[in-house]
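U., I forgot to send this yesterday:
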Amino acid sequence: MKISTALTLILSTTCFISTAIAQSGSSAKSVLDKASKVYSSYKTIMADFTLQGENQQENSNFNGNGKVYLVPGSGKFKIEMDNHAIISDGKTQWNVLLDLGEAQITDVNPNDKSINPSNIFDFYRSGYKMNKLSDAKVGVNILFVIELIPTDQSGNVSKIHLRINNSSGFIYDASVFDKNGNKYTYSLANIEVNKTFSPGIFSFYKHNYPGIEIVDLR
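Result:
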């Protein structure tokens, strides 16, 4: 799985659930439904994140961190890392790969069923089997564990695990497992909601990336 794909998927899977949500006896769907309702009430969401990956094929690990900005329900989002950015204004998406020196431009497909920050509040409603697994304990924290398994097995993702802090209701971490045995774990921190973003934050400006080559894939 490409890092950009894993990054978008993990962010998409976790941002919507970082809210006060669950009761101890709740089913997996009721936990997600409550998170979805709260998420959709926000005007904006901003958070720091960390990403850890374990690549079984290459016997290697990687770590990264960055920041995510999004407007729920609008298709607008921005993901920033040191050498990578993904920007969407709801119609056009820019995948900025600084290590390659290029920005790839694609149209946003409104019929695309893949997970992305524009559908994060309700993607789980179809295409997944879900289970609430046994609670986990990390230090003094009791964590709800929810497993999502794609009903379409043709993709590369085998399952997704979300762990939610029982006391605070915030996401503790999320892990995406692919069919090659690789694992990508993502954590949110410093979550802020209903902040006013600067104009143009969800647009691509070439002057912000000196020397970048534009690759138009539309």
